[in-house]
Amino acid sequence: MKGLCQMNPLKVSVLRTSHVYRLCIMGLLSVLFILISFDLHCGTWSVCKPMYMRRSGAGCALLGDTIYVCGGYGGAEGRGPSHLDTVEAYNTWLAQWTLVTSMNVPRCYVGACPLAGKIYVAAG
């Protein structure tokens, strides 16, 4: 895999997990269903389990030890509905994805932000 400095910042979303030594990166502009993790102590990359649904343009937010991926675009290469209302949660300790309650409205190319124990998704 490419080194951290070689990653195109326009194509990824970077989240620092509560494990201070780990960065998580996922695609935003290309239809992906993977999460890539970089261990700062070991200097190694690892590919995490795939999400249930391919998506691009999803909002990502970290709440506690869980990364939430909200909405996105699943059409074309994703072979799913074009605008998604689904939300997937990745438990960073268990290394496992879970489908959680969907959003009320399908949205893509959104921003997601944790605030007071909730995740807010805007735009799309």
Automatic annotation (TrEMBL):
<dbReference type="InterPro" id="IPR006652">
    <property type="entry name" value="Kelch_1"/>
</dbReference>
<dbReference type="InterPro" id="IPR015915">
    <property type="entry name" value="Kelch-typ_b-propeller"/>
</dbReference>
<dbReference type="Pfam" id="PF01344">
    <property type="entry name" value="Kelch_1"/>
</dbReference>
<protein>
    <submittedName>
        <fullName>Uncharacterized protein</fullName>
    </submittedName>
</protein>
<keyword id="KW-0677">Repeat</keyword>
<keyword id="KW-0880">Kelch repeat</keyword>
